[in-house]
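Posting for a labmate who doesn't have an account.
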Amino acid sequence: MQDSQLSGVGVVAWIQDRLSRRIVNGLGFLACIAGLGFAVYAQFVLKLEPCPLCIFQRVALLAVGLVFLAAALHNPRGWGVWSYAGLLGLSNAAGAAIAARHVWLQHLPSDEVPRCGPGLDYMLQAFPLNEVIRDVLTGSGECAKIDWTLLGLSMPLWTLLLFIGLGVFGVMGNLWLRR
């Protein structure tokens, strides 16, 4: 196909003919693995201790990755496409909400930052799960601390962008592609 023919509808048809849902979902899964791999690198090599909200974001990214993996292996047709697109949308929205809460906490004035609470390990041992989830999502002082930036953006902001990007990529890739 010549470059002059790659305009408008021609580009859409060209992309749809060369990509499949399986490839899109496989790429989404690999992006999740890369994100989780960087989180482990940041924790063990860069020595950045994750706060409770960071750990919840990792769990959300793992959930998104598992949905991408299931969709790639299943390679659905018909209503299955809508099911996986919905699951990807919901799991990415949940992850984006957690990351957005984290970004919000980081941008609070210092006098409005919540007090630091107990660590996640202690809370999981001492409190019921619903109380742990509520306390973590409420946030604490250690979640407001910015330890690392890239291009002026904090890690939770990069994670928010990742969830938004994976959500759009996963939902659109599953609903838009023909095969």
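Reply:
Got it, the structure tokens are right above this. The first strand starts at residue 149 and ends at 150.
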